[in-house]
Amino acid sequence: MEKERETLQAWKERVEHELDVVVAFWLEHSHDQEHGGFFTCLGRDGQVYDDLKYVWLQGRQVWMYCRLYRKLERFRRPELLNAAKAGGEFLLRYARVAPPAKKCAFVLTRDGRPVKVQRTIFSECFYTMAMNELWRVTGDAQYQSEAVEMMDQIVHWVREDPSGLGRPQLPGAPAAESMAAPMMLLSLVEQLGEADDELAGSYAELGDWCARRILRHVQRGGQAVLENVSEDGEGLSGCLGRHQNPGHALEAGWFLLRHAVRRGDPKLRAHVIDKFLLLPFRSGWDPDHGGLFYFQDADGLCPTQLEWAMKLWWPHSEAMIAFLMGYSESGDSALLNIFYQVAEYTFRQVSAASWSQRCGGDRSCCRRAPRVLSLTGNEGRFPMCF
After folding, report:
1. Predicted structure pTM score
2. 47: alpha, beta or left? (left if phi > 0; alpha if psi -120 to 50)
């Protein structure tokens, strides 16, 4: 037990150091002092190589600054709060394409003009998260009002009428349901309900609905988590129905774990650990070179996504969160050992030091990335640096 505590403490310190380095980088290089908001296309040296502003990333950065400011004493600094507020004001002014309508742009120009709209809910979801966190750190009711109103709109699109998203109902398209929408809604239920009994109560039924919809993606007699199912929760034919995303399943797993804890449901907790943590990890981990594959086919056929064998950083981050959370809630040391396995791989392959070793130290091949985005399936080479 003492050894375990020492190892966990060492990892905590390692992650804290990495967090400090990353936050310092974004504080120094990402803030647009002229137009507001944040640059997100940054080279490893901080150079801006594209000034387009993606609304979901703007929302994530506002959320992250606020959450760090609110939760960790060492980040309770005016520059974080002021940057979050400036980012929030940029979103308030420009994120929505045609106010008072709620649909948000996917991409904006540097000065806030819409470039592209996606027919999904995800820009709006991160807008909601940003506004709710801003309210929590500032106490400004305007931000909370924005968050709740946008949440109501998202729920309407998902559960009642998606026509406002602009997605046509084509006669040949299968009636499929992706895991992504109920996942994001479940995350928002937790976000808005934190320390707010009234909102938590009003979203309780929605949270249960989201959990049920996600759980339907466990298919093939409980042997696969599929990204897409029919509207009735059944399997689909073709590549769409065989599509697997191990990182997404692990992310859904820790969303569901948090839901199970909130509901006081140990049976659900055990089911989630088995089907959304262990199952996708076992199928998704590369036994030869390590790392999680980006996509898989449930029948072992070649996925149609050309990047299927890449090892992106984000599934490994989701896996580390999921297995630490699973260990924290269950005390199962096997989950902790998987965390160590994923963490060792991730820090070895994605750290700045490993990049320097692979590109000769001058970083000439990776000017465009503050952290690795993707690795090939074989031996962790780096083909994609944006």
Report:
1. 0.91
2. beta
